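Ticket #4471: structure output looks truncated?

Reporter: J.K.
Steps to reproduce: submitted the chain below (304 residues) through the standard prediction queue, then opened the result file.
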Amino acid sequence: MLTHRHIEVFRAVMIAGSVTKAADLLSTSQPTVSRELARMEQSIGFALFERIAGRLRPTVPALALFEEVRQSYAGLERVASAAARLRAFRGGQLSVIALPAFSHSILPDAFQRFHGRHAGVSLSVETQESPLLEEWLTAQRYDLGLTEHDSVPAGTRVELLLQVDEVCVLPDGHPLLARPAIGLADFDGQAFISLSSSDPYRIQIDEAFGEAGVLRRSIVETPTAVSVCTFVRQGLGVAIVNPLTALDFAGRGLHIRPLTRSFPFRVNVVFPEHRPGNPLVDAFMASLREAASAIKEGLAARQG
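Returned output as attached by the reporter:
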């Protein structure tokens, strides 16, 4: 029967050009190569080489057979190369789903850090609002997800990545910029930019102002923190938003001040428990933690 050893010997002879050099290539003896070559010829039923003046010359059938062998080994070499890239994190893909706010704040910084160490890896980012985000993670469609909610979707586990307080954002020249920290009473009568009425942070903030008896002038209601900051930057009013988006706008016609009342904002990482493991996840988590630390440092610097 034709064996893998026969093919290996035949390939070595074709590459090296002689039995002696093929033996060196295979780290074996010349008689062993000659014997295996003879067995292969016996197995396939035709001669592979003509022996002329003590030298081997491939026959026409041998040249055709070698082309098949060469293609087979090329495929094997591609597999080995892919395995080497994966082993060194030089290839592969990581799929992430996140709230839209994280796609322009913590994720770009984290991937820049990750890309510096694993340049061959590509990142697939899908943005989605709750509850679809949690549903898709439950369906095991992504390697990990970023959410602001504490609840654990079915079939997943949750890890807290970052907790910071919501902040007040103000436009250039606003009188409240003179204050190092903003209290709820300072918003009384102020033009205010709000998130949508169904947003959980909007509900929490409205309840706090109601309990404090503070009346704001609602100017704009918009669904995302990015659009809130855009309206504030235009001088239409002040707002309370998550610090990740605020930091992204800070210094471009928008200023950050801490609040005397705490409204905690959390970034949680959600891991599907039944999706096949991706070895890149742990490496990316290290970069996410570094980006989270940088956000804390940047926020502290902006707030004095």
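Triage note (M.O.): checked the attachment and the full token line is present. The chain has three domains: 4-87, 93-164+266-302, 167-262.
Status: closed, working as intended.
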